[in-house]
Amino acid sequence: MGVLELLRVLLGAAFVLFVPGLAWSYVFFARKSIDWIERVAVSVGLSIAIVPLAIFWLNRLFHMGITLVNTSATVMGLIVLAGACILATRFVRGRNAARETSGAPQRDDDPLVSTAQDGR
Q1: Are 19 and 77 in contact (CB under 8 A)?
Q2: Positions in the chain whose pLDDT score sits under 50
């Protein structure tokens, strides 16, 4: 096995078995809530769980063949989706923090504000 083949195998394994789980671990756990070794273990476990399920269901529902291009696109889609979830969470948290520090009254029609008296 040449050096390029070894590099391709190592980077491909990290791309499929680590990176998607790492992205989703930041969605499920706050940045400082778990240690780095726990995050690595959770990342590998999430990747092993999420990637095959996503590929299986895309194959089953949309009759997509399991090819290198489709698998790479699925893994990239999972990473981008996790990144979008992280950005949306940060946006909402930043919006709520700015609202709390500004002293402005909260609007009743804001869907991000939950009120206990209206039963929702």
Answers
A1: no
A2: none
